[in-house]
């Protein structure tokens, strides 16, 4: 499980333009407020440009990824750069209105959802916004595939820790959790799922056949 920041491979794939549009959006939103990850991507972009100029035909070896990471660790950290486009602008462009004014649909207990997969045509993943009411709890669940999530508003906690606004987390079928919204506002997240979640609670597990 990746917590709080995208892992090195994800940043490398983002820099290379190899991620799907929904996954790239999650990382872009995180980068806008994370100077550390933004610096790493800037370094990857620079290295990629040099490699393209000096070696038009690059032979990819098994050690290339490790070599690039080693070069990143020795690069001096760049000064934080003011984002050219604030996160709220990206979200408003995608959704057309404020997060709290969206047509949320109550799912289970304190959880409301809004499926926005249609905004990403030709993508295989399901893209959903999820809102957990302030102080509320989500049902215990695991994942049938991979779920990439970024916190857009508020914060949530589970047995792995606390995830605040703009934190990034990737969960797999090896992760089971029961998120709780912390703080005084609703927790809103954007998630990209390769497969539906799997409820694991004593009673809620009977609802699994009805989950998309």
Please give a structural write-up.
The chain is α+β, with helices and mostly antiparallel strands and 212 residues long. It has two domains: 68 residues, Arc Repressor Mutant, subunit A, CATH 1.10.10; 124 residues, Sandwich (Jelly Rolls). The chain contains five helices and twelve strands. Strands 1-9-6-11-4-3-2 form a seven-stranded antiparallel sheet, covered by helices on one side. Helix 1 crosses helix 3. The two termini are 23 Å apart. The C terminus is likely disordered.
- What is the CATH architecture term of the largest domain? Sandwich
Low-confidence stretches: 77-87, 201-212
CATH class of the largest domain: Mainly Beta
Cα distance spanning the termini: 23 Å
Q: What form results from the Cα inertia axes?
A: globular
Write the layout of secondary structure elements.
Elements: E1 2-4, H1 8-16, H2 21-31, H3 35-54, H4 64-74, H5 87-95, E2 105-108, E3 111-115, E4 126-132, E5 141-143, E6 147-153, E7 155-158, E8 161-163, E9 168-171, E10 180-182, E11 187-193, E12 197-199
Antiparallel strand pairs: 1-9, 2-3, 3-4, 4-11, 5-12, 6-9, 6-11, 7-8, 7-10
Helix pairs in contact: 1-3
Give a short overview.
The chain has helices at 8-16, 21-31, 35-54, 64-74, 87-95, and strands at 2-4, 105-108, 111-115, 126-132, 141-143, 147-153, 155-158, 161-163, 168-171, 180-182, 187-193, 197-199. With 212 residues, the protein is of the alpha+beta class. This is Anti-sigma factor ChrR.
């Amino acid at each position: 499980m990746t917590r709080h920041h995208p892992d090195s491979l994800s940043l490398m794939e983002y820099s290379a333009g190899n991620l799907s549009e929904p996954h790239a959006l999650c990382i872009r939103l995180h980068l806008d407020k994370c100077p550390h990850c933004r610096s790493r991507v800037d370094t990857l972009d620079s290295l990629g440009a040099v490699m393209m100029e000096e070696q038009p035909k690059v032979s990819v070896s098994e050690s290339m990824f490790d070599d690039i990471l080693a070069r990143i660790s020795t690069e001096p950290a760049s000064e934080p750069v003011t984002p050219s486009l604030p996160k709220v602008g990206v979200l408003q462009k995608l959704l057309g209105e404020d997060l709290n004014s969206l047509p949320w649909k109550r799912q289970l207990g304190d959880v409301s959802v809004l499926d926005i997969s249609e905004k990403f045509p030709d993508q295989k993943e399901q893209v959903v916004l999820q809102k957990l009411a302030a102080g509320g709890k989500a049902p215990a669940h695991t994942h049938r595939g991979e779920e990439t999530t970024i916190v857009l508003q508020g914060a949530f906690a589970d047995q792995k820790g606390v995830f605040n606004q703009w934190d990034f987390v990737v969960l797999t079928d090896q992760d089971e959790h029961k998120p709780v919204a912390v703080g005084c506002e609703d927790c809103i997240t954007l998630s990209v799922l390769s497969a539906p979640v799997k409820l694991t609670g004593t009673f809620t597990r009977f609802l699994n056949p009805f989950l998309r």
